[in-house]
Amino acid sequence: MLERVSKGPQRVRTLFLSDIHLGTKGCQADKLLDFLRHYEAETIYLVGDIVDGWQLKSGWYWPQSHNDVVQKLLRQARKSVRLVYIPGNHDEFLRDYYGTHFGGIEVVEDAIHVGVHGKRYLVIHGDLFDVVIRHARWLALLGNTAYDTAIWLNTHFNAIRRALGLTYWSLSQWAKLKVKNAVNFIGEYESTLAAEAQRRGVDGVICGHIHHAVIRSQSGMSYINCGDWVESCTAVVEHFDGVFEIIRWERYGPWLDDPELAATPRQAPAQLGWSPQSDGLGTAFARLLGRRPPPGRALPAPDATE
């Protein structure tokens, strides 16, 4: 890791990120910012649930670190990096805007990614293949609230474990998998997505949604799940030799190590302004959510200082 830092960011062909859940207290935006400092890609796919519209509608939460993640991604777009945003169920408010661009970021329903060796992969969030999301959204919302509670309990639970010299154990992930298995939340999720990829005549599928990063063969198709940035802090990268790899990010560093963020004055929350005339993602988020942020809070907008 130290050698990589000394040589600058590692170049990869493609980066796949899903389930960041900006706008929630469980989002580990600090680690994601650190990760984005160490990897540069020609193409970045945002594979759904990047912004958590469900949570923002019920209670506003948007700290500076979440703003910094959006600014970081917008800078990548301005540097000619191709960014493709595939909305998920938590940011479904963007599904009315397929085919449009926000700050250079393409919004599409799904995408076909062509690998180095010509293999074709369906890139899709995956919630449409979750029987609970499709047929019992109220139950999914109830499960989401329970999951947020589990995340909060998990933080305090592991603080006690650290004090006792014990290793990290994810109570929230254990509870989520147990509950989802009990009520069949996923419903043979991987098999269903592999079957969809086969139906579309591609070689594999790259998805998110269930917060479980994995690369494996499913029914003769490549199944790749990007993981999440709430618990596991995982992403999938495609190297220039065509190899796909899961990166689990455990390193942590202060934001101001990033020269781009350091070059932009960091404002206190009370100083962050809301500009309805700005044409960036902030305006889109507010319009699509049908609300403005509370006084003294900000939504992301393009950085006019760059």
Number of strand elements: 12
CATH architectural label: 4-Layer Sandwich
Rg over C-alpha atoms, rounded to the nearest angstrom: 19 Å
Overall outline: globular
- Overall structural class, as computed from helix and strand content, comes to alpha/beta
For the largest sheet, list the strands in their spatial order: 4-5-3-2-1-11-12
Q: Whole-number average pLDDT? A: 75
* CATH topology assignment: Purple Acid Phosphatase, chain A, domain 2
Number of helices: 10
* SSE series: HEHEHHEEEEEHHHHEEEEEHH
What is the percentage of strand-forming residues?
15-25%
Offer a quick outline of the entry.
With 306 residues, this protein is of the alpha/beta class.
Fold topology:
Layout: H1 2-6, E1 10-17, H2 29-38, E2 39-46, H3 53-58, H4 64-78, E3 82-85, E4 101-102, E5 105-107, E6 111-114, E7 120-123, H5 131-135, H6 137-163, H7 171-182, H8 189-199, E8 204-207, E9 214-218, E10 221-225, E11 234-238, E12 244-248, H9 259-263, H10 281-289
Parallel strand pairs: 1-2, 2-3, 3-5, 7-8, 8-10
Antiparallel strand pairs: 1-11, 4-5, 6-7, 9-10, 11-12
Helix pairs in contact: 2-4, 6-7
Q: How would you portray this structure in words?
A:
With 306 residues, the protein is an alpha/beta fold. The protein has a single domain, classed as Metallo-dependent phosphatases (Purple Acid Phosphatase, chain A, domain 2), CATH 3.60.21. It has 10 helices and 12 strands. The protein has helices at residues 2-6, 29-38, 53-58, 64-78, 131-135, 137-163, 171-182, 189-199, 259-263, 281-289; strands at residues 10-17, 39-46, 82-85, 101-102, 105-107, 111-114, 120-123, 204-207, 214-218, 221-225, 234-238, 244-248. The strands form 2 sheets. Strands 4-5-3-2-1-11-12 form a 7-stranded mixed beta sheet. It has a 5-stranded mixed beta sheet with strand order 6-7-8-10-9, with helices on one face. Strand 4 (101-102) and strand 5 form a beta hairpin. Helix 2 runs parallel beside helix 4 (64-78) and helix 6 runs antiparallel to helix 7. The longest helix has 27 residues, at 137-163. The protein is globular, with a radius of gyration of 19 Å. The chain starts with a helix and ends in a 17-residue tail after the last helix. The model is unreliable at 1-6, 132-143, 253-280, 291-299 and 301-306 (pLDDT under 50).
